[in-house]
Amino acid sequence: MNSHKNCPVCNNNEFRPFLKVKDHFLTKQEFSLQTCPKCELVLTNPFPEKQEIGKYYDSDEYYSHPEKSTSFFSQIYEAVKKVNIKYKFKVATSGLQKGSLLDIGCGSGDFLNYAKEQGWNICGVEPNEKARQYSKEKTKSNILSPDEVLSQADHLYDVITMWHVLEHVEDLNWQCQQLKRILKPGGRLIIALPNIHSYDAQHYKEYWAAYDVPRHLYHFGFSTIRLLLNKHGFNFLKREPLKWDAYYIALLSEKSKSTPLTYPMAVLNAWKSNVKANKSREYSSNIYIFYAT
Ligand SMILES: [Zn+2]
């Protein structure tokens, strides 16, 4: 295990205890979350080193299933996924002319494929080799390993998207520097993240599925992600909700709690989260849109 001595966002050298959370998804191991009192970043601290982190991803469930399933729930899931991809694309590119788009952590390539159909030049980055090969075949486009990004030229992309990816990245500052380097000046950066200030985060506490320790190394609210990106030369444009995520997260959280009436309780709490967020803007997950200065 490795641990942070200083806050990667504001460099403060003091952390406070925040919550103890189990890896409900795979190992049932317990991890400590700490918070930085200065910038409110929440970190999984200590966290697994690079050599050990692989075992926490060691499940087929963690990656998108390319195979078609015909069960009722997977059909609903597929239908929601399609609607969601269209919505994400609209949010990411609204007001822009067609250009070049890089999706970091592109998984099986569904989002990229849609962007390609809409006439964008696409490229992807995917660390998992199986998923990388699959998305290469699917999109018939260039899908890079994280190392290959390093050799890419400066200022290549009009839009870079990271759908629930930044919370997995160990070196936040290095990642932000890379983003700034390969994005065109004025280019758009789209970051989707779970929101620790959402109603569902506060309701489920240590059972909130979006803590997803130790795979999620950082847990952000709006002010903290804005501070990190401002530091690296990005300005905030706007934020948009991911309302379906509330249902997915509530369902996983209810399952970890093993409450009776899992499904109705999940629907009720997800609905509550979205209603409350209508006013507060603190949705279960948000899409944050920045542009490079
Ligand atoms: Zn801090």
Fraction of helical residues:
25-40%
Major sheet: order of its strands? 6-5-4-7-8-11-10
Ligand identities: zinc ion
Q: CA-to-CA gap between the ends? A: 37 Å
Characterize the main sheet.
7 strands, mixed
- Uncertain regions spanning at least 5 consecutive residues: none
Beta strands, count: 11
Brief rundown of the structure:
The protein has 293 residues and is of the alpha/beta class.
Description:
With 293 residues, the protein is α/β, with parallel strands linked by helices. It has a domain of 162 residues. It is 38% helix and 22% strand. The chain has ten helices and eleven strands. A seven-stranded mixed beta sheet has the order 6-5-4-7-8-11-10, sandwiched between helices. A four-stranded antiparallel beta sheet has the order 1-2-3-9, with no helix packed on it. Helix 4 links the parallel strand 5 and strand 6. The chain is globular, with a radius of gyration of 18 Å. The model has no long low-confidence stretch (mean pLDDT 94). Bound molecules: zinc ion. Zinc ion (ZN) binds next to loops.
List the helices and strands and how they pair.
Elements: E1 16-22, E2 30-35, E3 42-44, H1 50-53, H2 72-93, E4 100-104, H3 110-117, E5 121-125, H4 129-139, E6 143-144, H5 146-149, E7 157-163, H6 172-182, E8 183-194, H7 199-204, E9 218-219, H8 222-231, E10 234-241, H9 243-257, H10 262-280, E11 285-292
Helix pairs in contact: 2-3, 9-10
Bound molecules: zinc ion.
